[in-house]
Amino acid sequence: MSSSSIVLFTASCRAVVLKVECSICCCGCECLSHTFCLSLPGAQGQFPIVQNMTVTEGGIANLTCRVEHNDNTSLQWSNPAQQTLFFGDKKALRDNRIELVRATSQELTISISEVTLADEGMYTCSLFTMPVKTAKAFLTVLGVPKKPEINGLTKPLLEGDQITLTCVTSGSKPAADVRWFKNEKEIKGAKEVNASGKTFTVKSSLQLLVNRHDDGVAYTCRVDHVSLTATHEETTQVLEVHYAPYVEIKHSIPAPLEGQYLKLECVPHGNPSPDPVLWTKDGGELPDLDRVIVEGRELTFMSLNKTDNGTYRCEATNHLGTSHAEYKLVVKDPNALPGPPDHALIGGIVAVVVFATLCLIIVLGRYLARHKGSCDTEYWSNCC
């Protein structure tokens, strides 16, 4: 560095200043020449004003340094390695990401684009008074978590399998928050945080004993982080569980009568789907009748009669097993059903009861009359 100085008394300066012409040369950079004023002791200097800043990795950081009522004294920004970035409006470090935003006697603002974690640290703004006054601003860079991955899932699963689902996200700073959801309902996982340089890798695990009710269930791993201001990162996996079938039979009417239409539907549940199904009657084949129709899972009786009575079985099979359900058909005669109560019969029964009661009263009266209506205590005790 070379410099020369002269003391000037000029009407443009409100105090005695030292005018300095300075040349700065650094490795790999062109030499810069700049003339600036240093306030001499006793001059009205000002402290630079800066602010800490937080930016997301890959974003843009704007660093601003201000002074009030500056008397043409120069401002400078330097990085955490104490390399000069800008000296006034002169760029000192060859880095295409660093640009000048504004340079006046009272402000020096620069921008750093495509910020990386390596840019984090303490930046210094210097005001070249005598002595030099500085202010420090800390640049915090947030590491953005990567989209989470869910490991440990194989397809298809079998009912009874025990599995461990692990959600992994890396690159976050500070450590990201990882949460699990089962069909949008939050469930708790086991969390593990590991540091890797300046960033963190976060894992969360779920242990599951799967059954048929887990077939089609969606498990979502969601990552929340301060750098994800408007949204969150998430990954979803849907379980496919294979299980042996179970069967139920649905019927169209509760109490079948002769001549009625009846439909029996075989509803098998299983994965893979047990299709087709097999209908049998009383352990044998179905009767070959025009009015008995089998279409897929449905067994239809166009017009019932008592010859249709019997036990009907629906059987379903997949590669994991076989299951069946039974329906006992009893066809009733609509004419044999109990009718409304017979009021004449009821009246006759009441009349018989009344007549019997009157006869009993008459017989008892005659008996008492024969004994002259008297009875000693012993008699009554024997009678009563």
Automatic annotation (TrEMBL):
Record-linked Gene3D superfamilies: Immunoglobulins (2.60.40.10)
Domain Ig-like: 48-127, 148-237, 245-330
Database matches in InterPro entries: CD80_C2-set (IPR013162), Ig-like_dom (IPR007110), Ig-like_dom_sf (IPR036179), Ig-like_fold (IPR013783), Ig/MHC_CS (IPR003006), Ig_sub (IPR003599), Ig_sub2 (IPR003598), Ig_V-set (IPR013106)
Signal peptide annotation: 1-15
Subcellular location(s) per record: Membrane
Primary residence: membrane
CDD domains: IgV_1_Necl-3 (cd07701)
SMART domains from the UniProt entry: IG, IGc2
PROSITE patterns for the chain: IG_LIKE, IG_MHC
Cellular component annotations (GO), alphabetically ordered: membrane
Protein name: Cell adhesion molecule 2a
SUPFAM superfamilies in the record: Immunoglobulin
A GO biological process held by the record: homophilic cell adhesion via plasma membrane adhesion molecules
Keywords annotated in UniProt: Disulfide bond, Immunoglobulin domain, Membrane, Repeat, Signal, Transmembrane, Transmembrane helix
Record field: transmembrane: 344-364
Superkingdom of source: Eukaryota
PANTHER family from the UniProt entry: CELL ADHESION MOLECULE 2, IG-LIKE DOMAIN-CONTAINING PROTEIN
Coiled coil: none
Membrane topology note: Single-pass membrane protein
